[in-house]
Amino acid sequence: MVMMLPKRIILMRHGESQGNLDTSAYTTTPDHSIQLTSNGIAQARHAGVNLRRVMAAGECSPDWRVYFYVSPYARTRSTLREVGRSFSKKRIIGVREESRIREQDFGNFQVKERMKIIKQQRERFGRFFYRFPEGESAADVYDRVSSFFESLWRDIDMNRLHHDPSNDLNLVIVSHGLTSRIFLMKWFKWTAEQFEHLNNLGNCEFRVMQLGSGGEYSLAVHHTEEEMLEWGLSPDMVADQKWRATASRGAWNDKCSWYLDGFFDHLGDSDDDDIVENEGETNSLTVCA
C-alpha cells in the first residue's frame, strides 16, 4: 500500500493569552488554565479564515479535508474552537488532543520576579539546553515531540485519520511557540545551534510545511525567502528549504550543507588506496611484533 502524504502540515501558535498580556497571571493561575484575551479570540477567528484560504488555494482538490491536533492547554483549545468557525463539518475529518505538543513546562506557579531572573540565566546558558527549575528544557520538549512524530507517522501510514486519498489532506497542529519551533527543528534536522537563532511565532501565526513536487516538505513552497529570514533561518537554511521544494525524498544527506561538513573538517571524495594499503601493512607489523 502506498502511503498517501498530507498536502500540508501547518503549525499554529495559540492566540494572545492573559499570560502574554501580563506575566503575573502565572503567579495565581496554572499555565494550562491560562485563558485567551478578547483580542486572542479575534486573532483565532481571523487565523481560521486565513487557514481556510490556504487550504483552498492553488491546485487543491475541491474536496480537501483537514485534521487537527491540539495541545490540551485552555488557550490552545479555545484557539481551535474559534478557528473551527471557518470550517464546515464536511471539511473536518477529525481532531485529537495531544499532550506531547503542550507548552514547555516552566515549573508550577511562577513568581514573576524569580522568573525574570531565571529567564536572564537562560539567555546566558542557551535556550535549548537550559532547564527551568522544576520544569523542562527545550531539549526535553524535543524528546516528547520526537515521540509525537512516531505517532503522527503511524497515523498517516496506517490511515488512522480515515483520509480519502482522492482528497487533499491538511494537518493542523495548534500548539505553542517553542513547541512549534522544536517541531520544525526535528523535522528539518536543524542543529541546536541553529535553533538558538530562531524567533518565536507571533500569536495565531502559522508556518506551512507543504509537500513539494519531489515528495519533500518545504516551507519555501508557501512562504517567501524574506519571511524565512525574519523567522531566524540562516541563508543556508533558506537555501535548503528552496531545494526541498523540488527535491526527491531521501536525497537530503547528499545535499545539506551542514550535515557532514558541520561535523568534519574535510572528507575526501574517494578512498586513497595507497593509504589504506599502508595502514594495513603497519597494522600487520604491529601484530607481528
Describe the protein in words.
- The protein is α/β, with parallel strands linked by helices.
- 42% of the residues lie in helices and 11% in strands.
- The protein is built from 11 helices and 6 strands.
- Strands 3-2-4-1-5-6 form a 6-stranded mixed beta sheet.
- β2, α3 (74-83) and β3 form a beta-alpha-beta unit.
- It is globular.
Give a quick summary of the entry.
The protein is an alpha/beta fold. It has helices at 18-21, 38-56, 74-83, 112-125, 138-157, 177-188, 192-196, 225-230, 235-244, 252-255, 273-288, and strands at residues 8-13, 65-70, 92-97, 169-175, 206-211, 217-218.
Q: Rough shape? A: globular
Could you spell the SSE succession in H and E letters?
A: EHHEHEHHEHHEEHHHH
Q: How do the strands line up in the largest sheet?
A: 3-2-4-1-5-6
Determine Rg (CA atoms, Å): 22 Å
- The average pLDDT is 89
Number of strands: 6
| Strand coverage percent | 5-15%
Write the layout of secondary structure elements.
Elements: E1 8-13, H1 18-21, H2 38-56, E2 65-70, H3 74-83, E3 92-97, H4 112-125, H5 138-157, E4 169-175, H6 177-188, H7 192-196, E5 206-211, E6 217-218, H8 225-230, H9 235-244, H10 252-255, H11 273-288
Parallel strand pairs: 1-4, 2-3, 2-4
Antiparallel strand pairs: 1-5, 5-6
Helix pairs in contact: 2-3, 5-6
